Structures are given as C-alpha cells and as structure tokens.
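Support request from a user on the community tier.

User writes: "When I paste my structure tokens into the form, the page sometimes reloads and wipes my input. The last time it worked, I copied everything first. Here is what I submitted, just in case something in the input itself triggers the reload:"
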C-alpha cells in the first residue's frame, strides 16, 4: 500500500460512509430556498399573464364595439332633408342676435 494514504479500520470506515446531520440540514435548506424562488417566479409570471389577458380582452371588446359602430354609421339611412355635417346656432354676445347655419357660431350640433 501507499504510505501517504491513511488507513482506516472497519469501524472508522463505517462511520465515514454517510452524511452528517449538518450536511443534510444545509442541503435541505438550500433545496428549500431554490423551491421558494422558483415558486415565487412562477406566481409572478402567472399574475402578469392574468393581468395582460384582461387587457387584451378589453382591447378586443373595444375593437369589436368600434367595428360595429363603424358598420352602423356606414349603413345609416341618410335623409335628404337634414344636413348631417354640423348645425351652428350661436348667439352673438355683442348684438344678442342668433347666427344662422353656415356662419362661425360657437355651438356645433350633430343631427342623428
């Protein structure tokens, strides 16, 4: 045998086979920390995905509403007796006289 290697008796070899209690506690605590970090990351990712899904649903509903509004406005029956642009009916504060449509009045009214 090599003289640099220590020699152990069978009782010493049996004592060195397993892990000590301190080694097991350190390994368990490290594993616990890793599990806590992974679960925290998973929880935060789930919250982010849930929040973004809500925003996407709201955007989709708004898009559907605006598309429907656009279709309704395009299919609206246009009456020839109504001017659909704007109606101007403002009172000139200096003369207290009502301005007629087509002038530069302050109030705009839409006819629907």
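"...and here is what came back when it finally went through:"
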């Amino acid at each position: 045998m090599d003289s640099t290697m220590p020699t152990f008796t069978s009782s010493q070899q049996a004592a060195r086979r397993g892990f000590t209690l301190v080694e097991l506690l350190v390994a368990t605590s490290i594993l616990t920390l890793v599990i806590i970090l992974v679960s925290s990351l998973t929880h935060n990712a789930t919250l982010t995905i849930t929040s973004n899904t809500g925003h996407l649903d709201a955007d989709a509903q708004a898009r559907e509403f605006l598309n429907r509004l656009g279709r309704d406005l395009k299919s609206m029956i246009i009456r020839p007796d109504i001017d659909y642009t704007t109606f101007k009916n403002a009172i000139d504060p200096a003369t207290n006289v009502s301005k007629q449509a087509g002038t530069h009045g302050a109030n705009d009214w839409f006819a629907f």
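Agent notes: The reload is a front-end session timeout and is unrelated to the input. Helices lie at 10-15, 21-74. Residues 89 and 99 are 6 Å apart (CA to CA). Escalated to web team.
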